[in-house]
Specification:
Layout: E1 2-3, E2 10-11, H1 28-59, H2 82-90, H3 94-107, H4 111-122
Antiparallel strand pairs: 1-2
Helix pairs in contact: 1-4, 2-3
Bound molecules: zinc ion.
Length: 131
């Protein structure tokens, strides 16, 4: 049996469209494959983000020649200080980082939300700030 994702009606296994509402049916095996693909995609994106952060952290040096560490900002934070920390690290306006983050969030249909959560976990708090 294949259950219609829209109306919940049971359709025969070989049915391609729901005979009640006409919506395209997804069989269980197709659904599992889709979820697998999605999980893989998320993993790839996660790896890419980690690499980007690592590259950004290692390539950016402060004036005294020591590598500048990427921290979440405790001074300039709205949610977790990720945008503020990135702005401090790259010496740009935090507002600009937030605007870009919001544009990406809307444009990526939630993938950016995942990116934010990942950055939240990856980047440590700036120990020089009050938390
Ligand atoms: Zn249906």
């Amino acid at each position: 049996m294949v259950y219609c994702s829209k109306c919940g009606k049971k359709n025969p296994d070989d049915a391609q469209y729901c005979d009640k509402c006409g919506v395209k049916l997804i069989t269980e095996s197709q659904l599992e494959k889709n979820i697998d693909d999605f999980g893989e995609e998320i993993e790839q994106i996660g790896k890419k983000i980690v690499k980007t952060v690592e590259d950004a952290t290692s390539s950016s040096k402060s004036t005294d020649g020591k590598p500048k560490k990427l921290y979440r900002s405790g001074k300039d934070k709205i949610i977790a200080g990720v945008c503020g920390g990135l702005a401090e690290h790259f010496d740009v306006d935090p507002l600009l980082v937030r605007v870009i983050a919001i544009v990406l969030l809307v444009g990526s249909l939630g993938f950016m939300m995942l990116a934010y959560l990942l950055l939240w976990v990856i980047i440590p708090r700036n120990p020089e700030h009050n938390w």
